[in-house]
Write a structure and sequence with these properties.
three-stranded antiparallel β-sheet; five-stranded mixed beta barrel; 8 strands; 259 residues
Length: 259
């Protein structure tokens, strides 16, 4: 008997693998990233037609096929997110988060690391909550991104040091070094070439977001340039340490600040 399981999942991406079939990348709380084949998806009478669109949340039956291939044979919609298709700003931030999850989340794909059940559930929960946050407050996508990036980094093993200087380990940081992976104090600023001075408000924002729920994070109010710099540095930290280049990142406009 073929191995099979039922799981909730968020649709991350889909691509054509034939005239009528497509491969769909899912993020599941049970197994992380799963690459599944949807046979006959583009046929008019396909039971999966319209259900495996990006951003959709579904419950599906996944069946083991030949070799390492999995097939999605049944699916029931749990939630659709039409706001992402109605708002360009929502779409840009949503695509960034979906592509990010498709690169860093654990899973069963060949290019994914096999995570623990706790990691799989955490990545799913973070992405779900982030998408819901953007959908409910489309103008706060940058704040949602800061919160989500701060939640992802501990699982990636690259959480930045926000409390003490990375060099002397004694004083509070005033600058941020992507290469060193965290803050640098005033006395050590000249000891490394890539240190960027960071406003006190950004340090406070990062620390608050690290310990808050998304609802609490979205309730905070800061100037747009503060959000832009805080998000850009947080993303640059992940980009460098995980060697990531995301196409969706080019769509984002978060102010004139660039690292």
């Amino acid at each position: 008997m073929n191995e099979s399981f039922t799981t909730k999942a968020i649709v991350l991406h889909r691509r054509s693998i034939g005239e009528n079939s497509e491969a769909v990348l899912l993020l599941s709380p049970q197994r992380g990233r799963i690459d599944v084949a949807c046979r006959g998806l583009n046929k008019p009478r396909s039971a999966l037609r319209g259900k495996v669109e990006p951003f959709n949340e579904l419950e599906g039956l996944v069946v083991k096929g030949r070799g390492n291939l999995w097939n999605l044979t049944q699916a029931k919609i749990i939630k659709i997110r039409p706001t992402f298709y109605a708002s360009y700003e929502c779409m840009c931030w949503g695509c960034f988060l979906l592509e990010l999850a498709s690169k860093i989340a654990p899973g069963v794909r060949e290019d994914a690391y096999l995570g623990t059940p706790e990691e799989c559930r955490a990545f799913y929960s973070i992405l779900k909550e982030s998408l819901d946050g953007i959908e409910s407050q489309p103008r706060k996508g940058v704040a949602v991104s800061i919160w989500a990036l701060g939640r992802f980094v501990p699982f990636l093993g690259i959480a930045p040091n926000l409390d003490n200087c990375c060099i002397c380990q004694k004083r509070k940081p005033t600058g941020f070094s992507v290469a060193l992976g965290g803050g640098v104090c005033n006395d050590c600023l000249g000891l490394h070439g890539d240190v960027i001075w960071v406003e006190d408000e950004i340090w406070q924002l990062w620390r608050n977001f690290r310990n808050s729920t998304l609802e609490e994070a979205l309730a905070e109010k800061h100037f747009a340039k503060i959000y832009a710099k805080a998000e850009a540095l947080a993303w640059e930290h992940i980009r460098v340490h995980w060697n990531l280049e995301l196409k969706a990142r080019r769509l984002l406009k978060i102010g004139d600040y660039k690292v």
